[in-house]
Write a structure and sequence with these properties.
Elements: H1 3-7, H2 21-31, E1 40-48, E2 57-64, E3 74-77, E4 80-81, H3 100-107, E5 109-115, E6 124-131, E7 139-144, E8 149-155, E9 162-169, E10 175-182, E11 188-195, E12 198-199, E13 204-206, E14 210-211, E15 215-222, E16 231-238, E17 243-249, E18 256-258, E19 272-275, E20 291-298, H4 308-325, E21 331-334, H5 340-347, E22 353-356, H6 371-386, E23 391-396, H7 409-421, E24 427-430, H8 438-451, H9 455-458, E25 461-464, E26 467-469, E27 474-481, E28 485-492, E29 506-511, E30 519-521, E31 529-535, E32 538-545, E33 549-556
Parallel strand pairs: 18-24, 19-20, 20-21, 21-22, 22-23, 23-24
Antiparallel strand pairs: 1-2, 2-6, 3-4, 3-7, 5-6, 7-8, 9-10, 10-15, 11-12, 11-14, 11-16, 13-15, 16-17, 25-27, 26-29, 27-28, 28-33, 29-32, 30-33, 31-32
């Protein structure tokens, strides 16, 4: 969100005991189902469960159709006025509300945020409410303004089948790539696409005319006039009346930094990051010119004990401060490893990006624990919880399970490539240069020198389930980089015990849609023992012998894929865009 978007949220503008009598009367009317005309229109009211242990999140999109700004001062949940749990500059949740009914209502919710606020005339705002426990029945939400009912809706606690998995922009902020996933058994046909309350359907290219059941498709739109740090609120509307909504801050930054923020040229780390200490009294850090990221909170799940509402409020306050001070630098929040299955869905969505150390034994379901399986599952957990915003990943240059000895060069290469293949949009390295061997130091520098020029592709990348392999030890992973190209990772899955052993032979097949038929293998690709060819509707890779990991880069030939709609051929037999 923009600086103004992150500033205001639901929370009291004055102490509760000064709350005007007429608003209390309005709350009573709302609780008894009285007919009150709302100042705003509810465009979408959805409930989602993003991970297996997610208590659930409500997302409500409301539009102010009036001529005056709408200030929301109170939120009612099933007619009960919630205490100031919300976010007036990130104010924390008050402890022990005096009213038991309010305490009961507050216990159902961890945090809520409304962006932007106040709601300008003709503009929309997104209300997100993170629950502590999954609702057992439909619930009603009432947003109260100064003497008015701003909006009212009922939300059914049934997971919404349509979701935006990724909203990303290129470095020049000329195009926005949006991936929409359909989890239902019914196909959906696009009716309209809105960006920041403007209908941009006419300048939207789409990879298919119909979003098929259990499928994911790409929408690309031109975005002139947007700047780094601006909000991008997207609403994808289908003929069925369903819609998918999502919002991010547009930050075309792919950080490659050390966790401590040091510049390490020997390791290929040329940028810095700022770190905001977790202490409640800690002041905001200075932002160096070379900073490409700022960590606003580390391990929030135990920063204030179990008072996650207070931590959420503090995180939002810090994010608002950073958005004002450094609007073009992404602020990220680190999710603690100890309770990440619970903390990921709760704390995701509180910052520009979420961050996790995925290479830990607890993420692996195999026995013994396998590092590649751990990275795959850990990153999937974070991405599902934080969609459509980006995720950063920690790459620790020491052995699996926090052992003190460094990784080998081959292990470090596989770990970094696996993290990128899972959709990481930033690398945060945990390194102690004095403990690295010369070979590992060289490997890390070579990896970063490889990744840095490919950042324009990684900024748009979305994992796609398009690849298969005839050898289980050669694991292929595909990233679709908008309409610019495709990244194919080949990862050595090891011997089943986490150890790297030689693999091969194998044949890897990647099915590609017809609109990517002009792909060509780029010389930026890693060398490997085998061949790669682009055939009709597929990429075929033959691997003879394989040791660690390889990255094959396929770019669109003859036209830049992120160009305006119509710059690429339309798919045969179906509509590719307006």
């Amino acid at each position: 969100m923009s600086a103004t978007a992150t500033r205001a949220s639901i929370g009291p503008r004055q102490p509760l005991f000064h709350f005007p009598t007429f608003l209390m009367a309005l709350a009573a009317l709302a609780g008894h189902g009285a007919t009150v005309r709302a100042a705003c229109t509810v465009l979408a009211a959805q409930y989602s469960i993003r991970t297996s242990r997610d208590p659930g999140r409500a997302t409500v999109l409301i539009r102010n159709g009036g001529k005056e700004p709408v200030h929301v001062v109170r939120l009612l949940l099933d007619g009960t006025l919630l205490p100031a749990f919300g976010i007036d500059e990130g104010s924390p949740t008050p402890k022990a509300p005096a009213d038991p009914a309010k305490a009961m209502a507050a216990a159902r919710v961890t945090w809520a945020r409304l962006d932007p606020h106040p709601i300008a005339p003709g503009r929309s705002a997104c209300l997100r409410i993170q629950f502590r426990a999954r609702p057992a029945y439909p619930f009603r939400l009432d947003l109260l303004g100064h003497g008015t009912l701003a909006a009212r809706c009922k939300v059914f606690p049934v997971p919404h089948p349509l979701r935006i998995t990724n909203i990303a922009c290129d470095e020049g902020l000329t195009v926005i790539c949006i991936h929409v996933e359909n989890a239902s058994s019914q196909p959906e046909k696009l009716k309209a696409l809105e960006l920041n309350d403007k209908d941009v359907t006419a300048r939207t290219w789409r990879s298919a005319a119909v979003l098929a059941a259990h499928a994911k498709e790409l929408f690309v739109l031109r975005a002139p006039g947007l700047r780094a740090g601006d909000a991008a609120a997207v609403r994808v509307i289908f003929d069925s009346g369903r819609s998918a909504v999502g919002a991010v801050r547009l930050l075309p930054v792919f950080p490659i930094v050390s966790e401590r923020g040091d510049v390490c040229p020997d390791l290929g780390i040329l940028e810095t990051q700022a770190n905001w200490p977790p202490s409640a009294s800690a002041e905001a850090p200075a932002i160096p010119r070379s900073a490409s990221a700022v960590r606003i909170f580390s391990c929030p799940s135990h920063a204030r004990g179990d008072d996650w509402g207070a931590v959420a409020g503090e995180s939002l306050r810090r994010g608002a401060v950073m958005a004002r001070r450094a609007p073009r630098v992404p602020a990220y929040l680190a999710v603690c490893r100890s309770r990440s299955d619970l903390a990921c869905p709760v704390f995701a969505g509180l910052a520009d990006a979420a961050f996790l150390n995925p290479c830990l034994p607890q993420y692996s379901r195999r026995g013994p624990a396998d590092p590649l399986d751990a990275v795959t599952r850990g990153m999937a957990l974070l991405r599902d919880a934080n969609a459509p915003a980006p995720c950063f990943a920690l790459v620790a240059a020491h052995a699996f399970g926090d052992a003190k000895h460094p990784l080998s060069a081959a292990e470090l290469r596989r770990l970094t490539y696996a993290t990128l293949a899972c959709g990481a949009r930033g690398l945060i390295y945990r390194v102690a240069p004095s403990r690295l061997t010369p070979r590992t130091t060289d490997a890390l520098r070579q990896i970063n020198e490889k990744v840095r020029p490919l950042r324009p592709l990684f900024l748009l990348a979305e994992p796609m389930d398009w690849a298969s392999s005839t050898n289980r030890q050669v694991l292929p992973r595909v990233l679709l980089a908008g309409r610019d190209g495709l990244l194919l990772f080949l990862l050595n899955a090891g011997d089943g015990k986490g150890r790297l052993t030689a693999a091969g032979p194998a044949q890897v097949s990647v099915r590609i849609p017809p609109w990517l038929a002009s792909l060509r293998l780029s010389p930026e690709s890693d060398r490997f023992d085998g061949t790669a060819t682009v055939e009709e509707r597929r990429i075929l890779v033959k691997v003879n012998r394989f040791i660690t990991a390889a990255l094959l880069v396929f770019r669109v030939e003859g036209a830049r894929g992120s160009g305006p709609p119509g710059s690429l051929p339309r798919p045969e037999g179906r509509e590719a865009g307006p």
